[in-house]
Please model this.
Amino acid sequence: VSLLTVPPSTLVIMALSAVSQKSTVRPAAARRSAVVVKASAESRRAVLGGFMAGAAMTLSNAAFAAGGATPVDIFDDRKAREKGYDIIYEARDLDIPQAERDGLTQARANLELTKKRIKEAETRIDGSVAKYTAKSYWTEAREELRRQVGTLRFDLNALAEIQPKEQRKTAQALNKEFLTKVEDLDLALRKKDLQSATTKLTAVQTALDQVIASVL
Model:
């Protein structure tokens, strides 16, 4: 067919059709190229990742072997558990009594350890508290006193409870008097009154000696 015999409108349609075909082919080729490039990059990353993982495993095994360790180390923690290693788990158990969760039951069960704590608290009151008070270190003296009395009140009561009835009443009364004198000393320390604190410290030491004598 001669182009001279084709109407101009038909020529325009033919030209547009040719351009449309070219425009639809080019993006497809571009997409194929992008897919190939992306797949190639992912393959390189996968190979490199596998290589690094293998190298890390080799180094780890070498270090493990050099240290003389075994895959599973077994330790005997029975002695640690006997000393209260599991108390932290008991503290979180809501099905057991509060005293046991706080460790008070376990502490009171060992009377020899209770007596040692009482003696240690007495030594610190006679030593550290007296020294801080004499130097007017009010905060240190007050905090040390509170630390010792924090457990001392329970330990003295625990020993009083195992005494015969009449002796138990006497020990509990002395313990109550001791705690009252401790509160008086604490107030004097907070007021930073050296003369009053010194006098009340002597009263605390005397009261503590009396209550200890009644339970030990």
